[in-house]
Amino acid sequence: MAVCSDDTESWLPEIAGGLCLTLSRTFKIIIDPRLKNPPTEHWGRAERLSIS
């Protein structure tokens, strides 16, 4: 397991929150605005969008 500095560790919640927000916006804007519980195919599509 990697060890982070205290400064880096203090930023982890901000980074995780930003990533969650970006993923939720991806589902809402690009995939399907009515989607509440995305199935596997939608997760794969969101992953492909984030890689490209």
At a glance:
It is built from 2 helices and no strands. It has 52 residues and is an all-alpha fold.
Would you kindly provide a written description of the structure presented here, covering whatever features stand out?
The protein is mainly alpha-helical and 52 residues long. It has one domain. The protein is built from two helices and no strands. One of its GO terms (molecular function) is protein heterodimerization activity. Pfam families: DUF1931. InterPro entries: DUF1931 (IPR015207), Histone-fold (IPR009072).
In one word, what is the shape?
A: elongated
How many strands?
0
Share of helix, binned: over 70%
Strand content: under 5%
Q: H/E series, N to C? A: HH
Distance between the termini: 28 Å
Total of DSSP H or I helical runs spanning 4+ residues = 2
| Alpha carbon gyration radius | 14 Å
List the quaternary state of the chains.
Answer: single chain
Quick check: average pLDDT? Answer: 82
* Overall structural domain count: 1
**Sequence stretches where pLDDT stays below 50 over 5 or more residues:** none
Main structural class: mainly alpha
* Biggest beta-sheet profile: none
GO molecular function, one term: protein heterodimerization activity
Pfam families: DUF1931
List keywords for this structure.
0% strand, mainly alpha
Give a topology summary.
Elements: H1 6-31, H2 40-51
